[in-house]
Amino acid sequence: MNDKKVDEMLRRFGAENKTEVPSFFSSGLDEILEKLPQHSPAAAPVSLHKKKQRRKLPYIAGAAAVTALCIFGSGFISPAMAQVLREVPLIGSVFEKVGDPILQDMSKQGLISQPQKTATDKGIEMRITDVFYDGSRLALGYKLKTENNQPLNKVENQSMPLQWSLSVPETDNVQWIGDVTEKAGKDGEYSGKIDFNFDIEKRFRENFTLQLAVEAIHGVKGSWKFSIPISTRKVEKASTTFQPMVTKKWNGMTYTVERVTFSPATTQVIVNRTVPKEKMQDFFYIGYDESGTVISGGPSSGGAPKDEGNGMVTVTDTLLFEAMKDIPKSITLEAGIPGQLKAGDDPSLKRYSFDAKGKFPVTIPLGGGNSITVHGIEFLPDKTIMKYEVKGNPVFQTHYFMLEDGTGKMYGSEKKPVRMAKDKYLFTTEFPKLDSKQTIKLKTEVDEAEGASRQSVMMDIPLAQKK
Prior knowledge:
The protein has helices spanning 3-16, 23-35, 50-74, 79-86, 101-108, 233-236, 448-452; strands at residues 117-121, 124-133, 137-146, 162-167, 174-184, 189-200, 207-217, 220-231, 240-242, 246-250, 253-262, 266-276, 284-288, 294-295, 301-302, 306-309, 312-322, 330-337, 350-355, 362-367, 370-379, 384-391, 402-404, 410-412, 418-419, 425-431, 441-446, 455-462. Strands 9, 10, 11, 12, 15, 16 and 17 form a 7-stranded antiparallel β-sheet that branches. It has a 5-stranded antiparallel β-sheet with strand order 1-2-3-6-5, with no helix packed on it. It is 16% helix and 42% strand. The longest helix has 25 residues, at 50-74.
């Protein structure tokens, strides 16, 4: 059965049975039916790949039909169900295809919206298919389709296949950092996501309109413009916000932790930082859970500085960390000034190389009384595991190691270290599968001077006062 007949059948079914359906439901159904594809340019997005589009639409229309038939057959409808039906999304999410486990989970939980905004230029159709926003992380899922079914040109910077600009009509007070992940499909089709650490003026944080202007796709210059409604409505009920207002003064600077929000996708921390103007770009943050384990973090963004006089400015920093399964009783934030990075040939860097199949444990001094002891390396059929312990500053639990095989190829750790004990900083970290029959070296570099002169302050943040 083609998709046009499905549409006609569903509309006829609704018309014939309207007298048997409560009015509060029929109005909602009519709204859904009117949104079904009509196969006219005004009613459905233009597809450059008609054959592929004809396969997709019956699936979507059929799913809507099954939903309506099941509800009619149930004999009862609640007023809430009518609203639910108005929000029935198109089936399938780009987020489930681009390899982001957090967004995949958000899709399964129904915490994304699917605006299906389409623009076409230069023989390329771009569709914004999915949106996730939790007040700090903004992710846009998209699909590309070429008119001639041929693949797009590869770009020099594979991590940035799109060039764009964006704005928010409601306010100019917007800060963001964004990147792109994209996967190629068949017949000139691509699926991807634009991922932002997004900070907007507080009064517009819950609802605003994003104006996205894509200016080039895989090097093809053109104009693909989208107006996308953004809202936290789907996520806010699953989020918890605290306002700890913890203040710490250190080294002539003042840090105030204003807000901590735990959402299903991220942990967001808002910090007001008052510092000398010349130091406002020199800062770092590291988050720790209540047991002292590092919380993985993403990029941070800072708002426009506010002049406080006497050479001081206040900057609002938005920090993003990984989502936490359970809300802790407290977290700890380390704030400080980064040291100067050393070049690989700097003589002050100490290089260590060990036989990965040799005798363990081995201890590596990190400066300032800090050290890492490697207890052993295990070669498993599907991965390689290293066990190590940190003594001193807990930040060194993320110290970087490499394994080098007999051909000189280097391998880094692929996953976040796993803590093995609560009473000490004992971890395992995972490397790819390696052939233990060949020569394998464990390598790392250490700047003991940086370890001894680390400039930072720890802020304990109790989580009791909710927003």
